[in-house]
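Hi! If you just cloned this repository, the fastest way to understand the data is to look at a raw example. We've pasted two of them here, unedited. The first protein comes first, obviously.
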Amino acid sequence: MDKVTAELLVRTGPDTPMGKLMRRFWVPVMLASEIAEPDCPPVRVKILGEKLIAFRDTDGRPGLVDEFCAHRGVSLFLGRNEEGGIRCSYHGWKFGVDGRCMELPSVPHLADRMHIRSYPCIERGDVLWAYMGQSDRMPEPPELEWCMVPASHRFVSKRYQESGWLQAMEGGIDTTHASWVHRFELDQDPMHRQAEANKYIKADTNAVFDIEEAAHGLTIFGRRNGEEDSHYWRITQWIFPWFTLIPPFGPHALGGHMWIPIDDESCWAWSINFLPDRPLPDDELQAMREGKGIHVKYIPGTFVPLANPSNDWLVDRKAQKDKMSFSGVEGFSVQDASLQESMGPIQDYSKEHLVATDRAIVMARRMLARAARELDGGAEPPALDAMSQRVRAASVLLDRGAKAEEWAKDALTSLEKPVFSV
């Protein structure tokens, strides 16, 4: 990738083309449970390079506002969340969830003139979302399938990742790596056991890809050898600009990720498991809470993975040598994060050498760059229509003569259909 395009894609601040593009979408900001109760302590939030404060007012309304008071620039993290707003501890100026100054004790007649930046918020799928773009261009709320199922049917987590959002997201749409970095864990993890998929992924490490550009982004068809008369297909969805839906393994839950820039050199990596038609099994739900599957164990009191760059991701060379772990790193998400973080905060894209199995990455970059460049000319971004997000990933065995694209047209867009999984 040339340096101009790389710069375009990795810079996400308010005045950058990619930052402007991202702000046209509802942005996942935090778990709604982080501001669980009215008048709870405010929480610092940095997203797309902006320093903000999240809080829930006395009436239970969530707010996302500028971290700093309009008076002297004091952080409202030190403020008091009380009586319908966040009050600065320095001089008592108080702001509502809409950023409007509610009280200015020293000069009350100026209150109507004072405000701080604020963003509309909604709660959906256990996540607090904010719209950070032009108010007259606000799209419909997201309708990703996992957002719409009952709370008992899903589990959502997030983790801090020390890398730019693009290289993290590209790991999410690169399905060939499962044959390598995850190969020894597939039969051990509780969300991947008893799946015929494991043997196909291990046996055929050279997946062949067909990729379709769609209203939601990309549908990625990865074909491996199945049985003598069949192919094993893993069908991944990339939903513009930062969502992925990953195929399930056997009878286990479907999965998904979101990759949201904190700034240009770090991101929130979200992981979601869900079942469309029933609650998550108790044993799998407990395993998710313990950081297994695509979730992680944390440093207590944080969203920082216990295994992280500061401790070399707790790589176990003995486990690696004994073939207990291909990379020596424990856990699917930390395995992925270790590789993406090892590239540096922002990958040097000029040194990469992409091959045929990287076609999805190339196409996603082109879509992102095209949308960012065309936005100033008035073009609408892809996937703003919430209905376009109603797609599903799948893993399936099909006859060798069957076309996966034809099978997927109905099976993966009509969400009343059953889950297909091998």
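Ok, and the second one:
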Amino acid sequence: MLPPVNISAKIVVLFALVFLLSSIAIVHSGANNLHMHDGARTQDIIAGDVFFEIVDPPELEYTYRIRPAKDFGTSFESASFRVREGKLVPAIPPDACEPNFLNKNDLKGNIVLVERGECSFVTKAINVEQVGGRAVIITEIDSSSDDYDYYIEMIHDKTDRDTNIPAAFLLGRNGHIIRKTLAKLNLPYALINLPVNLTFVAPHEINQPPWLQW
């Protein structure tokens, strides 16, 4: 004869198993990762970050995450700022610490890609605005960026200056790869849409670049 089944004990074990499974989430700390959790909404994950997509060249046709400046510049999401197949142009020289750009005619009216370092974020944005740039996206200098840059906040340099264009930091090594790819293809710019509304897109369906870890 089989021993009697302890129903209460089985229920306790079942609930413990369900709790354990519901507590497991796949999380990766990569700099440009969405930090995804099963069941979370995209708008909760991305918080105040903004996304843009490259539509040409094909080698870069992915969705990219940027973090807007914390306390200077204007908003990428204002009603007056909409870029559809606009130009993302790497600045020459790339640090943008002086307004003497070698390709300043190419920057006018476009989104300007510059590198971090040598001067403040505010200085870079002001110099881009001075030559007619519509917005500035700041990137890491090389491909060695790690998890720490996920926590970078572009803050004001405490001077009495400001800028009237949007500014943001491109998380991860995306900026390095964008620059390198454009140079390899001998292209002066990429075509982008900015901003991209991902509110109703599931996190796992966002078309992130393949070189990012999940």
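That's it. A detail worth noticing about the second one: The CA atoms of residues 60 and 127 lie 27 Å apart.
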